[in-house]
Design a protein that fits this description.
Pfam families: Peptidase_M23. With 302 residues, this protein is α+β, with helices and mostly antiparallel strands. Helices cover 26% and strands 22% of the residues. The strands form four sheets. Strands 3, 6, 8, 9, 10, 12, 14 and 15 form an eight-stranded antiparallel beta sheet that branches. It has a three-stranded antiparallel beta sheet with strand order 7-13-11, with no helix packed on it. A two-stranded antiparallel sheet has the order 1-2. Strand 14 and strand 15 form a beta hairpin. The longest helix is centred in the N-terminal third of the chain and has 27 residues. It is elongated and about 70 Å long.
Length: 302
């Protein structure tokens, strides 16, 4: 017959050792892993997108909407990829203590009141590094374009554009009064832009002064030779501000509008010659570049 203790508890056999509370040495979580390349690239992409957007705003303000091309805007939008919340980490409730990872960390760390967060990467924010490189490259080009346009306008030129990496300006302010072609029984080889005497005349683009001084029919003229062999002519000027052999930049003031030579009113006579010195119609060239002239060419002061 077996006896029970007063409270019904069974006696514990002496050969059975009383289990001791397991004492586990304190563990420290390893330092969070370094943020991956993808995370850094995601952040850099956002910065690159901001740069492109800022560069686009600056370029539009300096040179007008015609200079700011759509691909820049599209790239600025594409560069702004979503970024995951990298600070969120798993809690004790989200980790199965039976897994090897949990055992490596230590069950006592999972049950603590302030578990350390592990970085989590959002798989949807994968970044194509080639796109990031392209974004940074285009942002750099936007900034360079803005600098060139700003430099071309700094002397006072009324308009400036960038064509194949080179700056071009409208050579003076004034009204278009006479076009290229036959007129009064002779050929008029340029266009006339009427303006008051003394109005600044600017270099159409970078070049070297080939002629500066008296010229038959023009009174005084300036001729610039450009890198591709083309030349630009500025006739009937009041005063030349440059000398032969001098290098000038797009938008640099080179002369003043005058009324010298065979002229019936103050204006700039502007010509463009190709590398073979054949004279071309300047108006469609200016228009194709986006340089706008005011007037219909119906009234000529020449």
């Amino acid at each position: 017959m077996r006896h029970r203790s007063p409270r019904g508890a069974r006696p514990v056999p002496e050969h059975v050792a009383t289990p001791r509370a397991t004492v586990r040495a304190g563990h420290r979580l390893p330092a969070p892993p370094a943020v991956s390349l993808r995370v850094r690239a995601t952040v850099a992409a956002c910065a690159g997108g901001a740069l492109v957007a800022a560069g686009q705003t600056m370029l539009t303000a300096l040179a007008g909407p015609a200079v700011a091309a759509d691909p820049y805007e599209k790239l600025a939008a594409n560069a702004m990829l979503p970024v995951a919340d990298e600070t969120a980490g798993p809690t004790a409730d989200s980790i199965d203590p039976a897994t090897p990872a949990a055992r490596a960390i230590g069950a006592d760390q999972l049950t603590g009141s302030s578990p350390q967060a592990l970085p989590v990467l959002d798989e949807k924010s994968e970044l194509d590094v080639a796109s990031l490189t392209k974004a940074v490259d285009i942002g750099t080009r936007i900034a360079a374009t803005a600098r060139q346009i700003n430099a071309a306008l700094s002397g006072g030129a009324p308009q400036a554009v960038l064509e194949h990496g080179e700056a071009y300006v409208l050579p003076t302010t004034g009204r278009f009064t006479s076009g290229f072609g036959a007129r009064w029984g002779v050929t008029h080889y340029g266009i006339d832009l009427a303006a008051p005497i003394g109005t600044p005349i600017f270099a159409f683009t970078d070049g070297v002064v080939e002629e500066s001084g008296p010229a038959s029919g023009f009174g005084i003229w300036v001729v610039l030779r450009h890198a591709d062999g083309t030349r630009t002519v500025y006739g009937h000027i009041n005063r030349s501000l440059v000398s032969v052999g001098q290098t000038v930049s797009a938008g640099e003031e080179i002369a003043e509008v005058g009324n010298r030579g065979q002229s019936t009113g103050p204006h700039l006579h502007f010509e463009i010659w190709d590398a073979g010195k054949n004279k071309m119609n300047p108006l469609p060239i200016l228009q194709a570049m986006g340089l706008r002239v005011v007037g219909d060419g119906a009234n000529s002061p020449d």
